[in-house]
Amino acid sequence: MPDLASVRVALEYSGACTFTPDIVVEQVRADSGAGLPESVDVDLDYDTELWDAITAPVRWTRPRLVFEGNDVILGRSGQIQMSRSLGGEMQTVEYGTIGPLWAMPTIEPELRESDPCPPISTSGASGRTPFAWGNKTVELYLGFSQGNGILKEVKVFQGLTFQKSSRRDTGIGGSFSAVDESLRYAKLPICYQLPPFAGKRRGEIFKDLAAAVGIDPAQVIVPVGKEVTKPLLLSNEHLLPFLTAFGQPENWFSRFDEFGRLVVEEIELKSDPDWTFDAARGDFEADTFEETLPSGPPTRYYITATQPVKGTGPGGSDLDRTSKTTESIEELYAPRTDKVRPSAQPSYLYADGSYRSLAAQALMLVSRRTSFATTHNGVPVRSRVVQEGFYNPAAVDPNFNASPVTNSYDAAYGNKTFHRDEVEPFIVFEEATLDGSFDQFGTLQRQVQSTRGWYSPQHALLHAGSPQSDLKNFPGAAYVYPGGIMRRDPVEQFLETKRVETEYTYGPDGALLETLETTSGWFSPKSRADIVAVVVNPDVPPIPILDSPPLPNPPPPAPPPPVIGPPPPPTRTVWAPRLLGPTRRYRNNFYFDLDVSAMPRLTGGATASFVGNFYLTGSASLGAHVPAQIVFTETRALGGGLYSFRQRLNAGALTVPSPSIIQNAFMATVNQTTSTDPLVKPADLEGAFAYGVVTITGGVDAGTYQTPFLYFDPWANADPAGLMVR
Amino acid sequence: MAATDTSGIRHKVYMAGRLLERDPAPIQLAPKRWEGKVRLSNNASHIDRGYIEPFFPNILDKVDIMLPYSHVAETALLEHLSTVLAIGQPFDVCTFKQHKDVFDGDGSQKVFYLQRLPAMPMMEAFEPGIGAAYAIDGFSTRVELFSAAYGSSASAVTPSTTLTVTYKTETEIAGGTPGAGVAWVSSDGFSVEGSLMRGATIKLGTAPANAHDSLIVTYIPLYRMAVESDSGRTFNQALQEARNIKLSEL
């Protein structure tokens, strides 16, 4: 709390009237001494009379500006505006004058005429004092009165004039700004000079600079610092901004503490960058208040980080700067596996038909992209992007090792594709590099864009014999990949898949004359083919090779038709079984009929084996049966007609009873085996579907035939309680 | 001496050294009070009034005067109006309409400051005998003391003391002391700091009571004016000319 003093105020007017009102004005005086003006924190508790005057319904008010200890005549200050920052840490006062700019009105005429204030006046000059020059103390009081000539004042501002001048409309008015101590630290101009190798340490220089704005060196808490050998020449710098920059080489951070001391601390650089949230990618910060809740828990996490890395090359060059950015994505995932794993580890069949290594998805790192950007002397010269993720290089289909081909897909994915590993690994799957070559002036001369990835070049088809009806693997030469494509390698290699080289040619005047772009990739020029088509099966149309156009040679002339032709050879029947149902239902037993009524002839002692598949997906109340697939096989000679298969699904382990032939129909059963089993409700069976597979071996109709999926409505005939009706 | 305020303007308006041959109709005086009202968050209101120095009038204002002539036929009047519009210095205007300055007393203070110069001493010199001739019209200056704040009670609307007014120069007022029951009123006024502010001192032989609004001075003020605006000229008919002048008090 500043000192209070009672003073008698004499107001002297230069006109014919001179009066000395016999009143007492209580005012808060500034702290004496050469110290810095303090910020004013208005506290009205000490003076109830002042408080009453402020809160009176009718009150008389008056501001009073004190400049360098002298009252500014009321009416000479123009409009006064005081601004205070939030929290009251910084205050400014602005006011204008109506006199000549430098003739700061004061009640002391001699002060107007003398010129005690450097630096603008030359020796011996007098007249217009530079009283309004910067760094002069300014105080602002607000006066309140309830009448009776008693004015109560409170000081609301104490600061220094800030170096500023402006012109009013009339050209002779002046405008002044005063600031309190906090702005003084930030805005007060400092001039300082230090020769090179002056022997001063950084901490000493901090104290010198602080002293330049009147801060006691004892109030400056600063580390010793290293010796500064470079010269220092400051002209109208500001304290805190300069200290911030000057302290950076030693990671110093300057601030004023609550006791007004200048505290300089060494801060530690963070080794790990901060997380970067990107709302556009669905990130959200858990601490952020959202009016609407997210629809579900987060399943993907993006983790992005950027950190500088050292220059490349031995020792690293200061000119070369490389920044590394890593972007990671985590989400719920289960790696794909082969159906039957060589390691005998389990593989789990998912509803999408894929086999996975985990029984349930887990939150894991699924993608990571690392970008390296290199600049040479500020010019971007190289960028490299490495992408990692779950990828299993494609591999040869071993079924083509035999002739005729076999059909075991145990070591393949659910979609019958073969891969290098039994479980897809987290590996680099793509690397893209962009290199630029520049001349000494930084002009781009050549640019090379290279992409590497997993690939095996295509190879010509190789056949087991003639006619070319049977593709076959030829180890060491070519391999058949899924889809019937023949490739060079048994598994994909990580190699350069594409390369784009661009060269720029400039004329003598620097104008771009020519751009030569060369794109390289794996390619084989088209050629005349000796083989028109590959016949995989005589019953299906031949597969044209490379979509080649019809051969230019005309087809050979057709032989003349015989008079009496031989009987037509047996041909494959266009036939497909159908699954009907549920045709009946008892409790939770569903009866499906496999309609093989259009069964082709089973000739030559052919037998048909039946593979029944019954898929169920539903809610968790089915427990271990979700998702469930029931597979059973039955082989018997068939003569056509309706066949039935039966399957029982219960809450315990799956039981696969032998299918029974009941009236030539298959029956699928979902029921309870014991009274403690949970009731199977229609909701549990939503989405369930069934299908049947018939495999015929031997005869002209040998092959595998699959029925379309049959989705059924478990709610049909359900009782109101949602239980299966009997 | 008239005991009451009088209604209406009862004399030709004085403007810049001349009594206007004919007043316009209407003459408008628009006082602008130096105060502001602030509505507070609890539905209460503050009225903030400017404070210059102690023992100035409680209500300070400035006056705008509108002189709308629909036709100025008199050559001398037209000449005068045109000249006033063109001069650079402020000039005095007297509308011969009373004005009241009200003060708070503290029981001992005897020197107060009118916010304008009383016009009658100057008008007396300009038109000798005007004071006596128009005494019935309330042109005289009155200084009245009240025992309590005016309006605070039934008895406080009647002055307890009416002082005898004597005009003195500021120098005379500063150098002397009026006797009991006498009020010295400045006849030449004072100005402050290059004529930025003009007022007139009154010194009383009897101090007003220690109460709000306990001293009321009624006088014909002399406004120090300047032309703020001059309307455009529209000549609708031959030989006719309208003037619409707005004056602003300094």
Overview of this protein structure:
The complex is a heterodimer of chains A (726) and B (250). With 726 residues, chain A is mostly beta strands. Chain A has five helices and 38 strands. The longest helix of chain A has 11 residues. The N terminus and C terminus of chain A are likely disordered. With 250 residues, chain B is mainly beta. Classes of the chains: A mainly beta (726), B mainly beta (250). Strand 3 of chain A pairs parallel with strand 4 of chain B, so a sheet runs across the interface.
Using the CA coordinates, give the radius of gyration of chain B. 20 Å
* Helical content of chain B (DSSP H or I, runs of 4+): 10-25%
Q: What is the overall number of helices of chain B? A: 4
The main pleated sheet of chain A reads as: 8 strands, antiparallel
Strand order of the largest sheet of chain A: 15-16-19-20-21-22-25-26
Structural class of chain B: mainly beta
Count of DSSP strands of chain A: 38
What fraction strand of chain A?
Answer: 35-45%
The counted number of beta strands of chain B is: 17
- Counting DSSP H or I runs of 4 or more residues, the number of helices of chain A is 5
Proportion of β residues of chain B? 35-45%
Give the ordered list of helices and strands of chain B: EEEEEHEEEEHHEEHEEEEEE
End-to-end C-alpha gap of chain B:
31 Å
In short:
Chain A has 726 residues and is mainly beta. Chain A has 5 helices and 38 strands. In chain A, strand 7 and strand 8 (151-162) form a beta hairpin.
Sum up the structure in keywords.
heterodimer; A: 726 residues; mainly beta; 8-stranded antiparallel sheet; 7-stranded antiparallel sheet; 5 helices; disordered N terminus; B: 250 residues; 17 strands; globular
List the helices and strands and how they pair.
The complex is a heterodimer of chains A (726) and B (250).
Chain A: E1 4-7, E2 25-28, H1 48-55, E3 58-67, E4 70-71, E5 80-84, E6 91-97, H2 109-113, E7 137-145, E8 151-162, E9 174-179, H3 181-187, E10 189-194, H4 202-212, E11 220-221, E12 232-238, H5 239-246, E13 252-256, E14 262-266, E15 300-309, E16 320-333, E17 348-349, E18 355-356, E19 362-376, E20 379-390, E21 426-438, E22 444-455, E23 479-481, E24 485-487, E25 493-506, E26 512-521, E27 533-534, E28 543-544, E29 578-586, E30 589-596, E31 607-616, E32 628-636, E33 641-644, E34 648-649, E35 667-670, E36 689-697, E37 703-706, E38 710-711
Parallel strand pairs in A: 11-14, 34-35
Antiparallel strand pairs in A: 1-2, 3-4, 3-7, 5-6, 6-9, 7-8, 8-9, 10-12, 13-14, 15-16, 16-19, 17-18, 19-20, 20-21, 21-22, 22-25, 23-24, 25-26, 27-28, 29-30, 30-33, 30-35, 31-32, 31-36, 36-37, 36-38
Chain B: E1 14-15, E2 28-33, E3 35-39, E4 45-50, E5 61-69, H1 75-86, E6 91-94, E7 99-103, E8 111-114, E9 117-118, H2 120-126, H3 130-133, E10 142-145, E11 161-168, H4 170-175, E12 182-186, E13 190-192, E14 197-204, E15 215-219, E16 221-230, E17 243-249
Parallel strand pairs in B: 11-12
Antiparallel strand pairs in B: 1-6, 2-5, 3-4, 5-17, 6-16, 7-15, 8-14, 9-16, 10-11, 10-15, 12-14, 13-14, 16-17
